[in-house]
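Possible regression after last week's pipeline update?

I re-ran a chain I had predicted before the update to compare outputs. Posting the input and the new output here so someone can diff against the archived version. Not blocking, just want to make sure nothing changed silently.
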Amino acid sequence: MHMIVHALFVPYCMHISFAFMHSQSQSILFRYAQTQKPMAGRVLFIDFCKVLERISLTPKRLEIQNILTDHLKDVYRDAPEALVAVLYLSTATVYPEHFNIELGVGEGMLMGVVAEYTGKSVAGIKDEYFKEGDLGIVVMKYRVSQLFISQVQLDVQAVLDGLRRVSAEQGTKCVAVKKMIILGMMSKCSPLEAKYLVRLIEGRLKIGLALKTVLISLAGVFSEDMAYEVKSAFNRQPDIGRLAECVVDHGIAGLREHFQVTPGIPLKPMLANSSNGITAAFKKVEGLEFICEYKYDGERIQIHKYGSKVETFSRNSENSTEKYPDLMDVYNVCEKDFIVDGEVVAYDRNEKKILPFQTLTTRKRKRVNEKKIDVYVCVFVFDLIYFDGRSYVDEPLEKRRSTLRNEFKQIEGKFCFAESVDCKKAEDVEQFFEKSVDGNFEGIMMKTLGTDAVYHPSQRSNKWIKIKKDYLESMSDSLDLVVMGAYYGKGKRTGWYGGFLLGVYNDEDDKFESLCKIGTGFADASLENIYEQLNSNLCAAPKNYVYKDSAKPDVWVEAKYVWEVKAAGISVSPTYCAGAMDGKGMSLRFPRFVRERGDKDVRDASTSAHIRQMYLDANVEDSEDFC
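New output (post-update):
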């Protein structure tokens, strides 16, 4: 009887789910969905789940790639209209990242759904979750036999549509409606389908399938030799659904013409490599034309102007327009459409000076009332990404800077060009660096000006080198690390956590690898806040955590928090797993906490490849040990 009631939810869910069309924001989502092509063929969700299960059983990246490529080829051959849905679900997303739309299904709600679906109590589900560490396994393990067997099998498009309806439900009754939509889909699920439906709701497939692999597999459907073109296209316009449609319509060769940078769709910013000394940095650019530019201590910002609209985006593609209503005057800096890259800093308009980063963090994040602003900001712009109908990412830096300075006008205290100087020798760099220290800047950037100095979205490049004043005597840069777990405190830290296990993101395998234990740099007040914060996100050891038992923490924490950490250096470690090659991992020497990075998603954290490269750059003579 229990499952009969579940099955009866289905038609009711279909009726109530379109209530989201009544609000303006939900109408936007509906119109977006209408732009996706209607599906003629079907790809059954069970077949897709079987592919995911095969992937979960192999740790080999190439084998994972081949399994997914073969499946995408079958989809393209039999039901090409379903390719978009398969790709969204393969990345555990329902909309492009810049939509900033979440399903709005918290852990407590999902546990309640699983409890109702399996017939167990919520307390029982919680106990099982802490044993298994995975609600997907719990729901598959305890799925009760259904008295009513649905005659309709789910397909991937139905799952994507259902999840989009869940994300669109708002209002006082949204929790009940979301539950009914999810239970309606679950009533059609086999145990394996239920496992992956729950994981999709959580936003994590937990099978080692990284975004890079999905993009390579998409390219493999058409040409194995054009993975770079597909990845580059995605970096220019991070929308995997529209990317798939463009490839189907125009082929991979047509991406450069038909899938370009577009105002309103944020790119992941280009990143710099780091150096722990001016001499070492100068060697990387010696013989090349280059400039030095102040490195401002604020938050990365991307400003898009198109038509009568101005939007701002953070480095992790979050729309920050509500946070900075006082920046809307930038509409007047140029008459044409544009995308510019810069740094937003707290700014004292009376004293006409930049304020510390900590001042910027006190500003509200959403629905800021321009009349009640107490922390003003100024944007220092250093690059041009799009201008007057065309992308500038493939133009050399010299042309991008020239166009920026010739076509844009500055607004004092709101919109300014980053200060820079042309340099020819190491002494020029030293003088500019000393000036940056005197001016309380974070450091300097060295940028080459050659014809190959293009803008690489979402990539680190030696065309940009950063030298921070805080790290000249230690490691060349700070790292942004993910909190994986915590250790109980002792002595004066009894009752709190005294140490934390931190890790880096492996963007090849979609896993988090342990890097170090940290216990310094914390004020007592921050430790108390951290204790409360982490306690609300404890879990069993996640399947996508890579660690050794010798570093196992007292409690595990879901990958949600990013901390900036400084250290004296990087060393080979038998205890940690980050950046491992030939079984040798790496760790930090004397790490210390700097600050929380709420502006960064865990998948924007420092990567395994980056930590490995930093080690090799600092220990050139030891690099043979890792070959």
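Follow-up from reviewer: compared with the archived run. The chain has 21 helices and 23 strands. Marking as no regression found.
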